[in-house]
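Re: your question about tRNA1(Val) A37 N6-methylase TrmN6

S., sorry for the slow reply, the queue was backed up all week. Below is exactly what I fed in.
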Amino acid sequence: MQEQFFGKTVLNSKVRTFSDDELTQDAFLGGKLTLRQPRIGYRAGVDPVFLAASVPAKPGDRVLELGCGAGPALLCLGARVSGLHLWGVERQPDYSELARWNAESNGLDAVIETNDLRDLSAELRQMSFDHVIANPPYYDPSQRVPAQDSGKEAGLSIETPLADWIKAAAKRTAPRGTVTFIHRAEKLPELISGFAKYLGSVEVKPFVPRTGRDAGLVLIRGRKEGRAPFRLHAPIVLHQGRQHMTDGDDYRPEIRAILRHGGALSF
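Result:
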């Protein structure tokens, strides 16, 4: 999987090479998982950890992540729930190869396909999954200054419409299986519209940074062939107090349990 060549870490002959100082090793879930990520490029924050924590997977389930990047959400889920069959799709070859390396180095069995979600392999098109997850890019490229790093820009800017993400996820979901996305709150109308077209039992969990603040993120879940009415859950509050008062993080205990100890996030 990995070769050393004149001080470079060569992950795949078809992708760029990274020098040792271009990659970092970052601990997730309190060190239960260690991922290599580009120092300059798209780097995972807490969003994929929350996404992974929200999936109601059980051992033996099959899980697919669309746009898996270097693997933070998919592998956090694999570290939290043992015995899962993990698949990821990532169109950027350098990031998909990092995801393969990260899975192997953490002792997780994951199949990572380098492809666009709108043009999946014949093998994947014949499969169905108990859970499909995604953390699509958040930002309209016409409304922001592009990142200088192409990998970071691809991870942040919307190029593939959300409707295509939702359609691809729903098509790969088994009956009674779930689709879960995390996204910016301002995209909620578009998310609800798309989910309602292909899925039932749609429910939304907002995240607010502090009590009294507006939601910044939302988790949205739908179930294939679900029939329950739409449900808007009470928001989950991330930080203690109404403002940041001390050095270090001030996450609420239940949030710290998710981020540091691999706890589950219930809808």
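Helices lie at 47-54, 72-80, 93-105, 122-125, 150-156, 162-171, 188-198, 253-261. Residues 93-105 form the longest helix (13 residues).

Happy to talk it through on Thursday.
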